[in-house]
Amino acid sequence: MTPETNREETAGKKAARVELLGKSPEELAAFAESLGERAYRGRQIYHAIYAERKFDFAAMTNLPAALRERLGSEAQITLPEIQRRYRSEDGTVRYVLRLAGAGSSDNAGGARRSEAPATIETVFMPEENRQTICVSTQAGCAVDCGFCLTATLGLIRNLTAGEIVGQVLAALGDNAAALKPQTNIVLMGQGEPLLNYDAVVAALRVLLDPGAIAISPKHATLSTSGILPGIERLACERVRPKLAISLNASSDEQRDQVMPINRKYPLADLLAACKKYPLRPWERLTFEYVLLGGFNDSPEDARRVARLVGGLKAKVNLIPWNPGELPYEKPDAARIEEFRRILVDKGVLAFVRYSRGQDVMAACGQLALAETKAPLAQISPAP
Ligand code: SF4
Fold first, then answer.
1. Interatomic CA distance for residues 109 and 160, integer angstroms
2. Of the listed 27, 37, 121, 192, which one is catalytic?
3. Can you say how many angstroms the Cα of residue 140 is from the centroid of all Cα atoms in its chain?
4. pLDDT value, residue 126
5. What pLDDT band is residue 12 in, cutting at 50, 70 and 90?
6. How far apart are CA 301 and CA 137, in angstroms?
């Protein structure tokens, strides 16, 4: 056998391994049974991966040695590879993560994990008592919002449930020495989560499971551009995060210009779906409104937004535009404050949120592999 043949066979065997990251307890129980083991072994693997954060089968000492060895040759747990880290002056870390792509098994969302390798971005934001992780759900995005650099990539591919969960585990692991007690996740990175519904929901079931990664649903937010069928499906989920709607305009005419998805799901339909959305007692909808200077930041816009969301149990987050490569201006501070005050005067809860990590292009609408275009302050390249 030539060394080349040997290498090909080894690669073939590796490709045939079953990817376990992202799998549910039921899927892992079925996997254990497929190996001739009892189903409870699958639940032990589930606990070891997500609750104990053990990604090496040899360390899963709750399993018999023979099973650990078999898992080592027949399965794999693949975290995304940290390709680059950029650390902002405010402590935010933007990760460029490499996803391995091809594997042999179905992911927990039901899609085959046969995609090409891809590069995505995840942002870790430390705060005094918590950390927030901004997670991508697709590589690139097809929704084509006019203020978003990710849109310039187009859709590269959907992520699997394991690749979504893996971003959280990779960011937590990389910051393990300084973690705060609470972790928040926001599905606001690259991609439209509701256009990768099954994988996103499968990932959320693991992320929000108290017996797994144990993030509270109160600390998890999914942000959508307004995909109505996805909102209606999410409303029926037993396990779900909070819902944020990316509004960004005060009329259909204006929203059509910056969010072409509005032509398919116009404001009246979107707000009707929001009215029907079953909020839990502690929950409010969030409307995100990127203030694009000179475009959607006038007092009249503020009054229209108040009329749109006025009857809803909701809050509005005003996000001043981050200057990027796109043709919008940064709104001035007085105009931002006037916008917020008009909303509050009309009884709408409104906050100004300044995006973090702007100096490393980690802010809202800036996740688009900018390191390929501008040499930012890179730190600690992955080994
Ligand atoms: S804002 Fe979100 S939905 Fe719109 S193009 Fe960017 S990533 Fe996609």
1. 7
2. 121
3. 12
4. 96
5. very low
6. 31
Q: Is 94 left (phi over 0), alpha (psi -120 to 50) or beta?
A: beta
Residue 218 has pLDDT above 50, yes or no: yes
- How far apart CA 25 and CA 42 sit, in angstroms, is 7
* Mutation choice for ligand 1 from 121, 138, 145, 227, CB with most ligand atoms inside 8 A: 145
pLDDT-derived band at 101, boundaries 50, 70, 90: confident
Burial (CB < 10 A; 0-12, 13-18, 19+), residue 1, is: exposed
Helix (H, G, I), strand (E, B) or coil at 140: strand
* Residue 254, ligand 1, Cβ within 6 A: no
Element (H, E) at 228: helix 228-234
Average pLDDT, the chain: 88
Query: In the chain, pLDDT over 90 holds for what percent of residues?
Result: 77
DSSP string of 95-139, one letter each residue: EEEEE----SSB-TTS-B--PPPEEEEEEEEE-SSEEEEE--SEE
Cα(38)–Cα(34) distance, integer angstroms: 9
- Residue 294, strand partner residues: none
Q: Is the CB of 319 under 6 A from ligand 1?
A: no
Query: How much is the average pLDDT of 4-29?
Result: 73
In ligand 1, the atom with minimum distance to the C-alpha of 223 is 2
Answer yes or no: is the C-beta of 191 below 6 A from any ligand 1 atom: yes
Tell me the per-residue pLDDT of 367-381, one tens digit each, with 9 for 90 and over.
Answer: 665 443 333 333 333
Q: What is the pTM of this model?
A: 0.89
Cβ–ligand 1 contact at 227 (below 6 Å): no
Which residue CA neighbors atom 3 of ligand 1 most closely?
A: 192
CA Rg value for the chain: 22
Block residue for tokens 């959305």? 277
Whether 115 is a known active-site residue: answer no
Mean pLDDT of 114-134: 90
Q: How far is the CA of 185 from the centre of ligand 1 (A)?
A: 17
Confidence band of 315 (pLDDT split at 50, 70, 90): very high
The whole-number pLDDT of residue 346 equals 97
CB 183 within 8 A of CB 172: yes
The predicted pLDDT at position 7 comes to 44
Number of helices (H), then strands (E), belonging to the chain: the values are: 12, 15
User: Among all chains, which residue has been given the structure tokens 């187009």?
Assistant: 154
247 lines ligand 1 (CB under 6 A): no
